[in-house]
Every structure is written in structure tokens, then in C-alpha cells.
Amino acid sequence: MTTETHSTTEHGMSNAGYVRIAAILAAITALEVSTYYIDLGALFLPSLLIMMAVKFVIVVSYFMHLKYDNKLFSWVFYAGLILALIVYGIFLATFHFFS
Amino acid sequence: MTSDSHADGGAHSSTGLSNNKLGMWLFLGSECLLFGGLISTYMLYRGRVGAGPRPSQVFDIPFTSVSSFVLLMSSLTMVLAVSAAHKGDDRNTYLWITVTALLGATFVGGQVYEFTAFYNEGMGFTTSLFSSSFFVLTGFHGVHVTVGIIMLMSIVGIMKRSKVPGSKAETVEMIGLYWHFVDIIWIIIFTLIYLIPA
Amino acid sequence: MAIIERPASTNEVATVATPSSSLGALKRPVATTGWKSWLFTVDHKKLGIMYSATALFFFIVGGLEAVLIRLQLAAPNGKVLNADLYNQMFTMHATTMVFLFVMPMAAGLANYFIPLQIGARDVAFPRINAFSFWALLFGGIFLNMSWFLGGAADGGWFMYAPNSGPIFSPSHGIDFWILGLQLAGIASLAGAVNLITTVLNMRAPGMKLMRMPIFTWMQLVVQFLLLFAVPVITVALFLLSFQRNFGATFFDVSAGADPLLWQHLFWIFGHPEVYILILPSFGIISEVLPVFSRKPLFGYPFVVFSGAAIGFVGWGVWAHHMFASGLGPVSVAVFSISTMAIAVPTGVKIVNWTMTIWGGKLQFTAAMKFAVGLIVLFTIGGLSGVTHSVAPSDTQQTDTYYIVAHFHYVLFGGAVFGLFSGFYYWWPKVFGKLLNEKLGTWNFWMMVIGMNMTFGPMHILGLQGQPRRMYQWTEARAGEGFFNLGFWNTFASVGSLVLSTGILLFLINVVITTRSGKVAPLDPWDARSLEWMTSNPPKEHNFDSIPTVSHLDEFFHRKYQEDASGQMVKVKTAEQVMQELEDNADAHIHMPSPSYWPIVLAAGLPVIAFGVIYSIPIAIFGGVIVLFGAYGWAIEPSTAPDDDFDPPATTKDVVHVG
């Protein structure tokens, strides 16, 4: 009923902007796949993890609008994400996964 | 009526935010713990292959790269659908939702093909701890994508009969949030499971 | 949707208009009385009562299971149960008490009182609320059907490998257990999303977070714990399902699996779960103590933040359940320290409660007695808990009756006493009648004596080495003198009967009160928070006009004001406060409409579960029911537009519950 008045102003991106974001994501994916063929040595693992995190944050911030939306949404989502990272990080550490 | 009052009305919410959107974000926060558990289980067991094949022996990186790309692009078409829905542009909303569903179906089709190929290479569900945890993790993700496709196709049907209760744009946006979430989970799975060798 | 037409100018009873048609596939349910009004209701108060009634039923079931366990151990070479049945009994006793009594009871109270306490007319998602309840009820029934279909689960409530595997448990009991808990988990997760959204989004004007009643605060913490803990057990249960039903080997050591995987996943869920069980009761007594001490809660912000701190630190202590499993010295040290740390916020709360009572004008009503009982008994349980945090000492105590003693002090002495405090405190609000105080006093003392007789000796039994889950004891090995295991086992069994009598007195009290109880005045306890600022029981729309909140303890501040000398004096009666709200009544209140779909959707879930155990086509049929329910739900507006309704033709009372 009243939700029809839901405003569109908070979605501060044009369609061209979305296409640009998608192009960036595609480029990063191409870089990721290239690590499979090129030997990066010690940089292999950190570079892949960083690219993964960047893609993740881009999708969440722009496609899911968290960057433009109310902070409460970011808060509940990242609370779950960070809790998962910490808890499962400790979980794997008790199995000596990282050593 | 001067003092209309809605028991569950978003318009009067204390934060000014939509109940539906807040509920969806809470659910997605919860899903992080679900997939976190599945990914951790896989991580623990990825090296335990028994007599079966090792991950690097079965994974087909070029193929999975393409299907990952397909899913990534479905996020673009989804966001275009949401954008069209907010502009009240029904034609483009239907168009982009349909494209999104098709891309999603392509991804699931790819997964079915991949699972079949693995099975033919001697990696069944019960072959090893690695294979079981791999199939459970990617299978859960695949089920999430499938549920997303069903929702996308349903919403087109329901919208065309103009039976969407509440705001159409918000409904599309809600499904969009779910869809993007499924995409970001695949971003993680693609890197951690496929690209980083056990 | 029921529109409540309430002419602002007069004090006529509100009328309910019922919809004549629906946009959905079926017409909307229209009954406002009778069984249909309960089956298809989305009213948070009715659902709250249904949750609590379900929980009370399972409390009796779980209690009978406990009595059977104690009868088996009352004498040497117990013959009441055979070993297999004994295993099923303790597994189902724990599962029932945790998942089907304390959790739903807390959920029921949350459902009923959160909207009232924050000045809302319903929860954020009324249909999801109904769905949660039905999923829980069907899950509970499903779980207990295993008794009649080849035997119940028998692996202990934390279901460690290898006992959970098909070799040690070939019956379908554990399959029923897994799937029943999945249903309960769905209910909890949906409930968590719903209640968090409600608390954040549905507060009355001026009801800032730091003005919320403490029960609502503690429930908010609990719902966040559920939101993030339920998916972890979901993963664990799925893995176990795949092992038992589809041939995977996730927990099968002979296939190279790590048995600690289950233990970790279970306790990552299981420890937050402990706080899920206790925090609602902490919230209840934080409401009860100030009311019957005639003082505000001492250090409200500290109680709030210590509750949040418990919720947070509760995620970092799970491995203290696994000290004896060979985790390694680093893990043990880390989890040992974090476990000691979590005693701090809990201690803060106990100090706050004590300081609330300190110097107050105490009224020892039954509710107050249970609240004080909680403080004392929980402290005993908390202290034995600290002895577990010391890993070397815990190694001695693991899997002995000492552990059983500890968690019954915190869960029975803590969680259950808190719930009983809530029963006596809120009964007049929900049913409009006061529970008998004299019977309440007997109820309280029988429970205190019974629980200390039952669980107190278990400290001794445990330290003497009696293993938990031991099925028989023999005279020959019982020892002598003060530490004779036989004596204390018999003593504890007698205690369990005293305890049962106490609980029976409560049930008798309920029956007597319902038949001939004293009708409660509007504000029987001179209470402080918003749920009392409405009739007993509340109207369907809760408040005639949504109050604007300007204080913590808003209701109190409307009744009392400071005089020149700084004393709080009564300036208005509860009736006058109510009258003010009625005079400004909203003319046109939209309430969410009853719906068929929540129960239809929920009914599909146990069908799927049966299918997983017996035959996949049944599961597919269940899936079709779920899909049908989901479509019906999706195309039905949660509140129909005004033109979907007849004008209010008949004048009916707003439906009263109870």
C-alpha cells in the first residue's frame, strides 16, 4: 500500500554505470583465471584472495546498493559475514589448517 | 481517514526502512554462516581423496571460468531489471529478468554437465570425503541458484497478471538481493575451491 | 484483514470487519472466533499463546521422560527401562527440553510481549510468524513420532560420532531427530528475522533503543544469536543426513573423516544456544525485580550491554565443551580464558539484580520468588561453570554427573525459574486472571526443594566418578559412607518426584485459575513497562492509540511524577492513563489479515521429511505442497486494500483470547 512511494533516489547509479562495474568485474575474473596459467610464485595466494575480496565488495556495494543504502543493512550483513570469517577461521585453525 | 494506522506498515517504521528489505538483509547475513560452514567443511576435507581423484585431476578450469562469467553477468542483467522496475518500465523489467533467469539456467546446466563429467571420471558423491564435501557445497549453491530462477520466472508471471501485492519494484529488488548474494557466494567458491589448488 | 472501526468520539466497543473476497486463489479465512480463528490467525498474541501451550505440552513430555530416567536410577540394577530405551529417553529428554520447551516458550513470550512492549500492533511479518509456529509444532510432532516408528534417537542430545552413525544407531530415530530439528531450525530462523525486524522497525514514536524494556532487549540479543547460530547446526544436520541417508562419510573415522568436525559445528551452534536459552529468562527477571522492589532497574545500560556482551563473547567459547577431545594445548588455553571472561558480564547482571533489590520495598509475590530463586540457583550453576573453564579440572568432570548438575542448575534453576517468574507476572495480562498466589508459593518451594534435592547430589555423584548417561548402578560398586552413590542416586530420584509435584501444582493452579480465578485489575502489579498500558487481555489491536514514548519505564512515568521534595508520587491511576489513550483513539486501524498459507506451507515440510526417510516420491509431493503454499502466499497481499472488505455490518466484540 504505502510502500508504493518507495523512492528510487537512493539508487545512485545509471545503467551505463552498472555496465562499467560489470566490465571491471569481468576484467578481474579474467586476471583471476590467468593466475592458473601464469606462475606468480609467492604472490599467487594473496593476489587471488585480494581479487576475490574486491569482486565481493564491488557486487555488494554497487549491485546490492549497500554503498548507497542505509548503514543498518550493511551492519547486519557484514556482522554475519565477519562473524562467519572469525568463527570458521578459528575452527579451521584448531585443525591446523593454516600451518 | 485522518488517523489511519497500519499494524505492519513500513511507512511508519521507526528506522524509516522497509521491513522486507531489512528482513532480507538479515536472512542474507544468516546465510553467510550457512555457506561458511559448508566451505569450511570442504576446506577441511579437500585433501582427503582416498582412492578417488584429487581436485586438480577433475577440475576443468576453462569450463568453470566460463560458467562463472555467465553467473557474474547475470548479476548485471539483474541489476538492470531492478533499475527498470524502479523506473516503472515494465517491458525492460520483464526483459532483463528473463535474461537473468536464462543466464542462471545456463549456469545450472553447466553445473549439471560438470557433475556428470566428474561422475564419469570416477568421482561420485560417496567416492571420498573430498567428493562428498565438494558436491554438498556446490550442490547447495546450485539449489540456491535454482530457487532464484524459480522466483524470477514466477515474478514475471505474477507481475503480468498484475497480482503483485505491495510494491513491484521492491519485490524485484528483493529477489535481486538474493540473486546477487548467490553470485557473491560463487565468487568465493570459484576462487577458494577451483583456483587455489588443494 | 480485519479493519477495526473505532469511532473516535465514543467509547463503543471496536468492531471487526471481515473480508469478503481475496486476491488469492482461495478466499481469505474470515472466522474471528472458534478453532478456525486459531488455525489461520496471524495475530501475534494468539500465536504467542499457541507457542507457549505447545511448549508447556512438551515440557510435560520431557518431564515424564526425566522421571523415567530417575526411576531407572533410583535403585541398584534398575529395571524400569532397558539400555536401549534408556538411551532414547535421555536423548529425547534433552532434545525436548531444549528445542521444544525452553526455546518455544521463550519464543511464545517474545511473540506476545515484544510488540506490546515496544508499542506496536503486531510483528513485522505476521504471516511468517504464523509459519514459524506451525513449522515448530510440526517439527516437534515429527520428532516425537519416532517413538512409534521404530524407536527414538539414541545418540545423546549432542549426537557425537560414531554414535550418530548407522552402525551404532540403525533405527530411524536419528533421522527423525535430524529432520525434526531442521524444521524447528527453520521456525527459529524465520522467527529471528521477524522479531529483529519488529524490534528495529516497529517501535512506537520516541521508543529509542535505550528506552526499550529489558525483556525486549534480551530477546533482541537472543534473536541475533539464533539468526547466526541456526545455520551452523543446519549445516551439521545436513552433513549427518547425507551420511545416514545417502552414503557420505563426513563423520566416519574409518573412512578418514575427522570426528571433531561434528563436535565443532555442533558446539559453534551449541554454545550460543546456551545463551539463547538463558537470556530470555534474564530479561524476564529484569522486568520482575524492579516492579516488586518498587525501584527502577539498577544500571539499565549495564544490563543491556552485558547482555550484548554475553551474546558476542558467546561465540568464542564453544570449544570448552571439547576440552577432553585432544584439541591441543593452544586451543585449550585460548578457550579456557575466553570462558573465564564470559563469567564477567554474567556477574555484572547478578550484581545489578542484587542492587535492584537492595533497599527496595520488596513484595514477595510468586513471580518475585521465582526471580530471586533464579539469582541464587543460577549463581550456583554459574560457579560450577567456572570450575569447568579451568581445563585440568574440566578433564576430571567431563561426562560425569557433575556436568549434569551444572547445566541443570543453570537451565532449570536459571532458564526455567525465569520462565515461571514470567508465568506468574504476565498471566493476568494474557488471560485477565491472577494465578493463585498461595498455590504459587507452594509451587515455588516444591520446585526449589525438589530441584536442589535432584541436582545438588549430582555434584557429589559426578566428582565421585559416576558417568553421565550411565544406565545402571550396582550396590557392589556404590562405595560407602557419605559418598555412597546408591544413597545419593535414590535421594536425587526422590527429589525428582518432589520437583514433579511442584510443577503439577502449577498445572493445578492454571486449572483453578481458569475456572474460578480472581479477575485481574487493570494494573495488578503497579508495573512499569508499556505492555501494561492496555487492557487485560489486550485488544486485538493492542493499543487504541499508539503511545508516544518519552521515558524508559514509560508507563511508570505516566503514573508517577516527582514532587517538590524529589519523591516519586502517584499522580494518575492506570485507568486514567488508559483513558487518555482511548480518548485519542485511532479511528481506522488496519490489522493484518488471517491467512491459510502459513499452515499450508508449513504442512509441506514434515511431508518432505518423511519422504527423505522413507521414499523420495513422498518428498517430492511435500515439495509440491510447499510450492503451492509459496505461490498462494506470494499473490496474497498481507493486508488487503480497503475495497476488499465489506463495511462493518455487525457489531462484534474484538476477539478476546483465553
**Total beta strand runs of chain A:** 0
Summed over residues and divided by their number, the pLDDT of chain A gives a mean of 86
Flag low-confidence runs of chain C.
1-25, 642-658
Main interface: chain pair and counts: A-B, 52 and 59 residues
Q: What's the domain count of chain A?
A: 2
The radius of gyration over CA of chain C amounts to: 25 Å
Strand content of chain C: under 5%
Report the average pLDDT across residues of chain C. 89
The helix-and-strand class of chain C reads mainly alpha
Shape of chain A: flat
Strand order of the largest sheet of chain C: 2-1-7
| Main sheet record of chain A | none
Brief characterization of the structure:
Chain A has 99 residues and is an all-alpha fold. Chain A has helices at residues 15-34, 44-63, 71-94.
Q: Explain this structure to me?
A:
The complex is a heterotrimer of chains A (99), B (198) and C (658). Chain A is an all-alpha fold. Chain A contains three helices and no strands. The N and C termini of chain A lie far apart (56 Å). Chain B is mainly alpha-helical. Chain B has helices spanning 19-45, 55-58, 61-86, 90-120, 129-160, 168-195, and one strand at residues 4-6. Mean pLDDT of chain B is 89; it is low at 1-5. In chain C, helix 5 packs antiparallel against helix 17 (597-614) and helix 9 (329-357) packs antiparallel against helix 10. In chain C, a hairpin with a 5-residue loop joins strand 5 and strand 6. Chain C is globular, with a radius of gyration of 25 Å. Chain C is built from 18 helices and seven strands. At the B-C interface, strand 1, helix 1 and helix 5 of B face helix 5, helix 6, strand 7 and helix 18 of C.
